[in-house]
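Reminder to self: tokens first, then the designed residues, so the page reads top to bottom the way the pipeline ran.
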């Protein structure tokens, strides 16, 4: 297996910690891993990419979108896994064909689409991926994961704080606190290690 790049954008640190956990887990398996914030434009020399972003307003960050646009051709020739951190996600079972992993620490992560309420719909797997996957046409990921994050509204910039207050009012499961789940992150990474070996 060739060299692996774990790259990420992280506004308040949760996605960075998730990326560090992924890199550590792969390194423990004896793999060659580079860990760095998103921005590298030359992916030559890498065979596998783990790309992480926080979810903001249902989408990945602008830095991640720019990275995907600049590197789309290279990504179609690599094994790629995507991971996201967020405070709420529901699997509405509209993306069953994708290799999804949802952090089990989320509260009630599965629900039939017909039972999804309006505000919940903006926090579903299909809503998040509808916006994300349009940036990676032709890329078939080996894994897509949604991990629980952490939230401290007092540390947010004003516009993010206002958005989160509204989200917390609409969805009671969104709370202040550190809900990062290193066990789930490590478990998902180990499962992909097996797939990478078989590829």
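Designed residues (199 positions):
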């Amino acid at each position: 297996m060739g060299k692996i790049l774990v790259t990420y954008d992280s506004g308040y640190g949760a996605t960075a910690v998730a990326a560090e956990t992924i890199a550590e887990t792969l390194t423990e398996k004896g793999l060659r891993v580079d860990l760095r914030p998103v921005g590298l434009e030359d992916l030559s020399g890498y065979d596998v990419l783990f790309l992480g972003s926080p979810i903001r307003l249902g989408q990945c960050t602008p830095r991640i979108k720019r990275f995907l646009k600049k590197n789309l051709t290279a990504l179609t020739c690599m094994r790629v896994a995507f991971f996201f951190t967020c405070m709420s996600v529901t699997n509405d079972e509209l993306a069953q064909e994708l290799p999804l992993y949802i952090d089990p620490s989320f509260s009630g992560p599965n629900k039939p689409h017909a039972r999804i309420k309006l505000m919940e719909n903006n926090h579903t797997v299909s809503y998040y991926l509808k916006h994300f996957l349009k940036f990676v046409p032709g890329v078939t990921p080996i894994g897509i994961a949604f991990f629980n994050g952490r939230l401290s509204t007092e540390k947010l910039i004003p516009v993010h704080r206002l958005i989160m207050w509204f989200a917390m009012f609409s969805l009671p499961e969104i709370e202040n606190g550190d809900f990062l789940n290193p066990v789930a992150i490590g478990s998902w990474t180990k499962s992909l290690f097996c797939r990478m070996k078989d590829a």
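The radius of gyration is 16 Å.
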